[in-house]
Design goal:
The chain has 282 residues and is α/β, with parallel strands linked by helices. The protein folds into 2 domains: 5-203, 3-Layer(aba) Sandwich (Rossmann fold); 210-277, Helicase, Ruva Protein, domain 3 (Orthogonal Bundle). Helices cover 40% and strands 17% of the residues. It has 12 helices and 9 strands. The strands form 2 sheets. Strands 4-3-2-5-6-9-7 form a 7-stranded mixed beta sheet, with helices on both faces. The protein has a two-stranded antiparallel sheet with strand order 1-8. Helix 2 (31-40) crosses helix 3 (58-66), helix 5 packs parallel to helix 7 and helix 8 packs across helix 12 (265-277). It binds S-adenosylmethionine. S-adenosylmethionine (SAM) binds next to strand 1 and helix 3.
Length: 282
């Protein structure tokens, strides 16, 4: 059985629980939205689903109906403690649930490698936590996350748009992201000030060796720190002068007068390759 608005409020009241804005605690009170998220994520009976921020358990119950098991990572100890009680009283799938009371940003291992990530992410850490999980758990094949509409647009943006930026290009190292739905603010308790969207991702083969990633990510940070500038000047401080920057970019096959917002992840890999070949050290 899924949770509706009255069950959510009743559980919160029984705990004397007041949602904390700082932890992005906006709970979904519409069971159909949870079912839709699980369906869009394509969760199957062999999946080990990991959920970041299960909150009061609305999405967790939906995941337990489909997945072989669910690992729920919740920072708030009162919510983490309540989750098994809620699951036990609303389903017969308690044995398939593992609750981990920890900050998802500092998590580095799970008892079983997860295959799918499904979460209504806490808005204040949505991008770092998503990138962290893609990095730490290569077993994650795909997923669907709910994030603030503006963040969703950034994750799934195309080059040369104003939404295209650091999160877009870094996320593209691990995965292909796309917008898969939108969610009205009225399905949350308490209702947030912004609308939300659903972002789907499918893991791709990394565009270069993992050892190159620190330089690739530093190049992305550098290019977007001054996104209105041509790459040769945006990168000159970092690379030790505009002449070196021009040489790096030329070697990488990239016109030095372009801006960082037109490049895709493979271009940043070519830049990192050129930097390595030229023996530039930081
Ligand atoms: N999944 C629930 C739902 O859809 O109703 C709750 C989603 S709510 C937007 C975000 C949840 O993430 C909250 O339960 C909050 O306590 C939890 N949270 C916030 N920061 C976290 C972190 N760094 N690590 C793990 N959980 C976190």
């Amino acid at each position: 059985m899924m949770l509706g608005a009255s069950e959510i409020r009743a559980i919160a009241e029984s705990l004397d629980f007041k949602p904390a804005k700082a932890l992005g605690q906006n709970f979904v009170i519409d069971a159909n939205v949870c079912r839709k998220i699980v369906r869009l994520a394509g969760v199957v009976s062999t999946d080990v689903a990991v959920e970041i921020g299960p909150g009061l358990g609305s999405l967790t119950l939906g995941l337990l109906e489909e997945a072989a098991s669910v690992i729920a990572v919740e920072i708030d100890s009162r919510l983490a403690g309540q989750l098994a009680i809620t699951v036990a009283s609303h389903s017969d799938r308690l044995a398939h649930l593992t609750v981990i009371n920890q900050d998802a940003l500092t998590l580095t291992q799970l008892p079983v490698p997860p295959t799918v990530l499904v979460a209504n992410l806490p808005y204040n850490v949505s991008v770092p936590v998503l990138l962290h999980f893609l990095e730490i758990f290569p077993s994650l094949r795909s997923g669907v996350v709910m994030v603030q509409a503006e963040v969703a647009d950034r994750l799934a943006a195309k080059p040369s748009t104003k939404e295209y930026g650091i999160p877009t290009v870094k996320a593209a190292w691990w995965s292909q992201m796309s917008l898969v739905g939108s969610v009205s603010r009225s399905v949350f308790w308490p209702a947030p000030n912004v609308d939300s969207k659903l972002v789907g991702f499918v893991r791709r083969q990394a565009p270069a060796d993992e050892s190159l990633r620190p330089i690739v990510f530093a190049a992305i940070d550098c290019a977007f720190a001054q996104r209105r500038k041509m790459l040769r000047s945006a990168m000159s401080g970092w690379l030790g002068g505009s002449e070196v920057a021009v040489e790096v970019l030329t070697r990488a096959g990239i016109d030095p007068t372009l801006r960082g917002e037109v490049l895709v992840i493979e271009d940043y890999c070519a830049i990192a390759d050129a930097i390595t070949q030229m023996g530039i050290e930081f």
